[in-house]
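Lab meeting notes turned into a lecture example. A postdoc, R.K., suggested we walk through two folding results consecutively so the class can see how the record format repeats. The first protein's sequence and structure tokens come next.
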Amino acid sequence: MPNFSTLLTKHNITAVAIGHFDGVHRGHKQLLSRLGEYGGLVVIDKNKANITPKLKRAEYSSYPCFLYEFESIKDLSGEEFIALLKRDFVNLKRIVVGFDFRFGRNRAWDKHDLVRIFDAEVIVVDEYCFNGMGVHSSTIREYIKNGEIAAANALLGREYSIEGEVVKGQGIGAKELFPTLNLEIKTYLLPHSGVYATRTRIGNKTYGSVTFIGNRVSTDGAFSVETHIIGEQIPPTAERIAVCFVKALRKNQKFNSLFELKEQIQKDIDQASQYCGVCELFLGKK
């Protein structure tokens, strides 16, 4: 684990793990376990919708992250890329990578070239499997896009979470249905449209919730991400919140009246209440 008593910077870090680290999932944790207390992550960032955008990776890895924009390094040779890292991390003594690591222009260099080029320790970590399945960010992304939240969470080793700013909704929730917090989500990969049992974090407190993603086909047809806090008054000062997905409840569907919609939302709330009280995942489990 990193040395929290010392501010870790490029100047005192002695080990780095290199990769995209989208999700910081169970497989990535195998690389992190080889870093030691003076470690950091070299994150190759492609600026796409992510499971863990930008420096959010540091929150889940507990290591400092140093972003290298893909566009700025894609034309470097393997030798040039390693030379860049050695200039940036002047005390670098160890590089940790995954079994399928490739780098340099057109991904033409591999783990064997890394051993040849880097004149210190190289650790190559084998593929990690969980419940018989290889753990990869691409697989997790597909699960999330398909709304298979339980499967995605199992490979992540945590509940999938998104964050966004609270924005004004259509205005009928609190008056005719149930009050919701409407979110503007910019950089996260969104689950498939539907209704989910969730946990919503506002400040330092987490609430049981039910969250809708998709077009409001029963009202104005607009796309929205909105969450209802179960059994609690919504804090009026909420500006930015996080939503953790626990279980998919149902697909998006159209109702003929607000009365029918409200009845279904009540059923969603009752169902979500059964799942959002206790986390089934051991977040530190490998």
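The second example is placed directly after the first for contrast:
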Amino acid sequence: MTRFRAALVAAVLAVLPGTAGCVVTSSSSATGPLVASGPAPQSAPAGDPGAPAEEQIARAVFDRVNDEREARGLEPVAWNDALATVARDWSAEMADTGEFEHQDIRALLQGDELSGFRAVGENIFTATGPVPAGTIHAGWMRSDGHRANVLNPGWDRLGVGVVCAPDGSVWAAQEFGRTAGADRPAVASSTPPVDPITRPTDDGPTC
């Protein structure tokens, strides 16, 4: 039987008044200068049937996030390659070590890799066997803290990274971001209700 787990964390620089997620870290300052503007929106990977399974799953999860946000009257999140790289790299790290844990989000915000971001929230997921994109998404949506990230009105960017490990396990991460100067409400600390989940079915591409 395939089993899965999910977890989340959020970190916010002190320039923001709110946080999201169950586990929160914060920093009063960054090691480098604060950037006045954030990265421009980017195009999500095509996720065509001929693309690698990991890319197809990432695109399917990304689309499901925006379907949920649209259904609840929230602005969509745009794809960000830097966040996706962070998500892929961390999914690969978890797969290599077998350790299901969050990375140091505070350190990410203080470094150069995510320059232009003021806050980041992370959802992670693992399953012992292949599962479709819908299972990953629905698992996050049925968990209060994860859903709070998916439906947080303060995020404006998202990157998704998925790893299909040689042993058949699946590892995934979502990195939500708030860019400098984002025209969005503050990152919220409230938890949206479970229903309605727009994309609850266990379907979509799989490893």
